[in-house]
Amino acid sequence: MSNLIEVKNLRKSWQDFGLQDISFALAPGYIMGFVGPNGAGKSTTIKLMLNLLHKQGGDIKLFGLDHVKDEIAVKQQIGFVLDDTYFQENMTIKQIEWLVSGFYREWDREKFNQFMIKFSLPKHKKIKELSTGMKAKLAMSVALSHNAKLLILDEPTSGLDPVVRSEILGELSQVVQDPARGVFFSTHITSDLDKIADYVTFIHNGRIVLATTKDEINEKYAIVKGTKKQLAEIKSLLVRYKESQFGFEGLTGEAVVLRKQSRGQLVLEKAKIEDIMLYFEKGEAGC
Ligand SMILES: Nc1ncnc2c1ncn2[C@@H]1O[C@H](COP(=O)(O)OP(=O)(O)OP(=O)(O)O)[C@@H](O)[C@H]1O
């Protein structure tokens, strides 16, 4: 089965920002979290994938199809959520349903109604009368009600309370119970990734700085602490580090080697996704 997503050497420049040779792929059956700080290029990448922006270079294939030439076929199979509200404020939920059901061949009315009940969304309410959480739930309900093979979601849990967040993450986990389906979602909430992502792709300043599995993060990455003398010996094994008056603290992607090599002389602690993100944002160059 072909990959659900294949992005190769994607490029897009604004006046003071550029996406530079972004590449990643997602196979069916998996959830990929796309993580990075504010302004890293997450929404731009997602809008390019959905052909809402024009790319300046590279290739985007969804289900093995070109995302521009085969846009209609591709969009039928995608459920998406964008970070800006895109429903008309004066329309009711019922009117929104009527509108989107006309576009999707496989619109599942019953499923949508089930979500309305589950998420306590009254169909007569206008969009402008919904809270942020209700809007997010509505957007997810629309994305999940046409048997989409792939969900592309821009910060679907941003601004939501922990209960709603957990409900939405639960729905995403359900999606990949079907091995033909997959989820790609951007976030800067690293705990969401800890909960549901199989793959984590980090973007920083328009570049992919790390693309790996969550298991690999647990195995290979660690926070290392030691003296300045030790830093000089292991610098080449650090991705990033920061020095203080007394010593250093750094991130390694070679935890297995370092554990063996240092024979208990260095302190190695488990690196969380959040630590990795902070190091890539703030740390100094390692080698
Ligand atoms: N239409 C545009 N015109 C000019 N610059 C833009 C435009 N859209 C985005 N940018 C710039 O591209 C960069 C990346 O923005 P983007 O929205 O992709 O980041 P992001 O990772 O989604 O951030 P956030 O987490 O804050 O939503 C920013 O510097 C932003 O100012």
UniProtKB/TrEMBL annotation:
InterPro entries noted in UniProt: AAA+_ATPase, ABC_transporter-like_ATP-bd, ABC_Transporter_VariousFunc, P-loop_NTPase
Keyword Transport part of the UniProt annotation: yes
Keyword vocabulary terms for this entry: ATP-binding, Nucleotide-binding, Transport
Pfam families in UniProt: ABC_tran
Domain ABC transporter: 2-230
Lineage top rank: taxon: Bacteria
GO molecular function: ATP binding; ATP hydrolysis activity
Entry-linked SMART domains: AAA (SM00382)
CDD domains per record: ABC_DR_subfamily_A (cd03230)
The protein, known as: ABC transporter related protein
Organism annotation: Syntrophobotulus glycolicus (strain DSM 8271 / FlGlyR)
Organism classification: Bacteria, Bacillati, Bacillota, Clostridia, Eubacteriales
